[in-house]
Amino acid sequence: MKNYEDDGPWMWVAFVPGCRLILDFIIGPRKQYVADKLVELIDKHLSDKIPLFVTDGLNFYREALLKQFGVLKEFPRTGKRGRPKKPKIVPSEDLRYAQVVKTRVNGVLEKVEKKIIFGEDIEQSEISTTLLERQNLTFRQDNNRVSRKTIGFSKVKEWLEYQMKLYCTHFNFCRGHGGLGYKDQRGVECKNTPAREAGIADSKWTLKELMKFRCFKTSIG
Questions:
Q1: Where are the domains of the chain?
Q2: Angle at Cα 190 formed by Cα 189 and Cα 193, nearest 5°?
């Protein structure tokens, strides 16, 4: 994947399919340092257990995951002539990573291949980017700032980041998701929010509650 649609900024998104939670995002070009930053942000949100990572075929993810979750393997001296083998970074035992590689010819999808890059015991049914691809479509439907080939796209990266932070927070905490249905105590069908489904919120927030929430503690000196 050396040729991209353009060299402009992209929105890199970390998504939790099971609860539809937008874990984090970063806006930047398709470069290795941006992939590294995204994986660093993901690691800050994780518990001790490393989840299964699934991405498209962009190799920047492979290198970023190795940097963040790899271990340094040293090789013992053999006693033979010549230079000893240099240490190298290898994936840790609990790192599992797979890719969904799509091959297109003249814009038409011809083949979809699922590759296991790191780890074992990964079922083929687990290797999917379908829900994230649908989420990318939702981004464009809801937000003209990230729509392609329109005059509504953001011209300034800083303001796009501010707007997307608000959008993603509202999506996680306030917006009921059709794929997260449940019945309340009265037996009424309801739509759960990603944050409540993930266990990081006790209830569905209103927009007023979101806007009044204090993200940072302030003090008056």
A1: 10-212
A2: 155
